[in-house]
Design brief:
Rossmann fold; alpha+beta; four-stranded parallel sheet; ATP-binding; eight-stranded antiparallel sheet; Dna Ligase, domain 1; 3 domains; D-amino Acid Aminotransferase, Chain A, domain 1; 11 helices; 411 residues; 27% helix; ATP-grasp domain-containing protein; nucleotide-binding
Amino acid sequence: MAILILNQRRRAFAPYLSWLEDLDEEVYLYTSPAYGETTEPYALVQVFDNWVTNDRVEIDALRLYEDHPYRLIIALDESDLIRAARLRDRLHLPGQRLDSATAYRDKAVMKSLVRQSVLCPAFRRLDSPLHLYDFVLEHGLPVVVKPVDGMGSMNTEIIWTPEQLNEAWERGLGSGLMVEAYVEGEMYEIDGLMMGQEIRFASVGRYSCQPLEILGKECFVELLSPADPIFQRLVQEVQRVIEALPSPGISTFHCELFHTREDELVLCEIASRTAGGRISESVSAMYGVNLNWEWVRAQCGLPLTLPTSSPPRVAGVYLMPKRPGTVKKLPEALPFDWVTEYVPRVKTGELLDAAHSSVDAVMTVIIVGENSASLQARLSELLRYLEHEVQILPAYKEDTINETPVISRKQ
């Protein structure tokens, strides 16, 4: 038989044949142009322009199956989960089906299913502006308005004041939105691999900022030691969330939970895919596990290589967001042996817009430390260095250098 991969990533981030080198089957690759030219020995490579909106991906996949049947469909990106699930339903293939993909993609469906098992903020799907009006009358401000199938905090808005509420109505709410009560508290993210509805591996991270308010702000995601008092409590809460949703089969997950001042855990959302923003790469730096590698191989029936002991160090990823201006200076490399990955996402001379998502960054930097204290000390050293080595001229004032602000950290 064979497997079909639906892909929109660059080859460097998705070396499927390397991951599956011990798989004795043909591999078909449907991909966006982002993958790049390849001479890799796929049985078939087909490139589709306008990948996310191109319906021929599904139609051609059906036609391919008629002539060259495949036993699995692999899709790693959140925007491909529904597409892959529809094909599995149609072709009766194993893996995540449409009910599960919908539950993990549509946040209103998700919270309707889990609210009997875990705490959720008050929420409502917005089918008209009257629904937002009624919700604010009942719950007050602030509220969060976001797409039901959004990701990376894109098009998410916190409405703090009546004036902002009127502005939202004046420009029109649009479709596919929901509203939630705003939750005060620290935000944690939990990543891992599940088989059926059982968590087989989990990592826990803490945001230095609120992801709902991250646009234009710097953020550090610190991965916690499994010995941290809140680690197992968060993992157990995610287990309850997963048990309340239709099983995705074998999948990675990325969940976000609020920890309130009242010591309650409140669900923000969960996705049946691997975390972005280089969080999964920081998990790899700490635990030595590549979640996408494990996910792809496990779906194919190949053996897992998950960690069986506590990690010898902790890790975290720093994201410097884009802001309007021209990049005048950017380091080519970082002079620290505790930096395991430095990814500049812009070039010198590039004109930048404001950040449009939580992962729309000037750079990402993964650092490691012996413990939380050493990690925070190294983060401070990194930020002091970047204050002098990164220069972005504000778009509105060509003769002024915009210094890199230092993110706030709890003492």
